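In full, the data.
>
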Amino acid sequence: MKVIGADDAALSVREHGFRDDVRDAQCRQSRSHRSSQIVVGPVRQRDLLMVLAAIFGWEALGRVRGFSPPEMHLPNHPDVAYEYIKTLCECGYRWLAVQEHTVEESNGQGLRERYLPRRLVARNSKGEEVSIIALIKTQGSDTKLVAQMQPFGEAKGQQPREIKGRRVPPFVLQVSDGENGGVMMNEFPGKYFEVMRECSGTDTPAMNVSEYLEHLTASGIGGKDFPPVQPLFQKRIWDRFQPGSGPEKLAEAIEQLKKEDNHFHMEGGSWTNSISWVRGYEKLLGPMEKASSHFHEKVLKAGIPTHEQRYRKALFNLLCSQSSDLRYWGSGIWTDYGREICRRLEAILANEFSSAVRSRKTTSGPPIVLPEESKGKY
């Protein structure tokens, strides 16, 4: 929080300490799995880049290899999915955790193999393509939490698979959010230690994703060897749309598919397939997207130095405005919180980034330095 200039929030933490859920979130971040509780779909990709830079710093990002999306969200609009994965790759990420029902085989069917790495491929309306290694989190949400360690039982029932004619061990993905149902507060670390003791020295050891991928690399198996998957509904789009035809033609194809099938959507997917992160939230998504656009125009595009206090104040409110918690609980006080944060951000942008105050030199610490290869792109 101090890095992005939120000294008042940092002081509050020092005085009052972390709540259990905040301490758990800090633990998740220290394990290099999470950046923020932001659902990717409605977030501009340049904002995501600033999120990662502000929280971790570029030096730390260089050591992080995997990304577990907040709410396990994966966008499925071709242009959004492409920019999302492209951004992660530019930040140095090698792998991405994805929920089983948010992706499909190249032929549009459900996944045939869920316990081996896959290659997630995204193609945009211009015909550009990008890919990243994907590890599949199988169905279930509260049954895959770190405090209860149910995937250990799932892993014990698996058998070796074959990749390129070589037998390799399968991998059962364990997500690290454990606050649901109070399990982090009530069952951690007891159950975690129990499972660690039972699996140590066995044929089903605990291993993080990067370690697992390193073992496969040492065996001569790399990303290009993993079977491809793609975001949900891509097959139906490519059956109607010729890659490279541009965003307008893509929009026409999507609208036609929506008219033909009310189950078809471009809202992406998450850990639950029973909640839409778009429908019913228009009153919040509108202000969120508008505030994000204004931040880009008045702050990033204008080249405001990142060490200025007004930059950090605006960035802090931008990140807060895009939290999934503001939408997950539906209408009511949480969405009210979201609109209020967007209002505050708009007020900051209007009052502190007008031409009359453009020359002000207030500072709040060292600048957030972008890597050379990303300068000018966002």
Notes: The chain has two domains: 65-260, 282-374. Residues 65-260 form one domain.
